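User: Could you walk me through two proteins back to back? I'd like the raw sequence and the structure tokens for each, with a short line separating them so I can tell where one ends and the next begins.

Assistant: Of course. Protein one, sequence then structure:
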Amino acid sequence: MTTSLVLYVEDDPVNAMLMQGILELHPGCSLLVARSGAEARRLVSQGRVDLLLCDLRLPDIGGEELLPELRAAGLSEGVPALLVTAESEFVASQLARRHGFDGYWNKPLDVAATLRSLEHWLRDR
């Protein structure tokens, strides 16, 4: 079985640890964490990513501005990209749609719902 590589662009170490804990419950997933847009661009240019999770507020760039840069750096159009944010569902859905994300997850994350959604986004990978 091939391991699915999930890139989480998140500068908050607590949120990154929570996501690591959630992904450990999903066999066959490996998490890469980028703490800035620059680090995310470097990781994307270095290799395959199967799912992108992106925080909205990063130290060097807004998450909504980062997706086109990651696509230009080598993130395939076929790779699903989800906005992960503490914004309300309405705001999150508007931001995701407006900026080319395939969907969004609201913080605080619900573990069971996140695992179901993860399965959905990685199913065809």
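----
Protein two, same layout:
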Amino acid sequence: MGKIRILMLGGTGEARALAQSLTDTGRYDVLLCLAGRTEKPSHQPAPVRIGGFGGAEGLAAFLQEGRFDLIIDATHPFAARISRNAGAASAASGIPALALRRPEWRAEPKDRWTHVATVAEAIGSLGSSPRRVFLAIGRQEAHRAEAAPQHFYLVRSVDPVAPPLILPNVCLVLDRGPYDVERETSLFRAHRIDALVTKNSGGSATYAKIEAARQLGIEVIMIARAPAAAMQTVATIEAMLAAIDHLFPSAMERGV
């Protein structure tokens, strides 16, 4: 029998590492799907498809037409729409689904966290008095800062924010993680940051900003994740590999 065909929804470092691990076994045929929101995506260890599917129905049809055996959702924890579509497509097609989700960050004793549910709520929680804000939420929702133009915003993203932000006092930084605490602390100090707005993405690649805020006593406006899609979820690549082996116990015989 042939290799097990896996459609992986990616875009994260974990997705790239998982695709590498699966490809290295020689037992799996992986197609890695990216949304295409990043202009220059990182090199990937498996064939790549870029673009959407046309909702849950389109994704279900793609799964069936491609004769995939499994769909893996390894997207960003805040990519809620594609995760919902993956769960719905799995249910409609009868093709099993697994999700890889890094654990959330947890506040430590010296952290000053304000918990909010949305980016809009985060911007509102900054208050009416001018503040100096590190807006570390990516470029897709950065425009929501325009609702509170009295603040200074340091905005960091992988690609330029488009259309440009209409703000009187904003500094744009193009950069890609991982970051280290020393650099993040220097960045905070250089721009005299007194508030960090971020999503609870989890993982280590961007955690340095949380550590830097802790060391400097800076308030963190932490945006919570939406409820996870209804599918079996694991937290690590090792756990995902074990779950796949459990789901397809004859994988080794099929692939060699």
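The domain at 113-223 is CATH 3.40.50.150 (Rossmann fold).

Let me know if you want the two compared in more detail.
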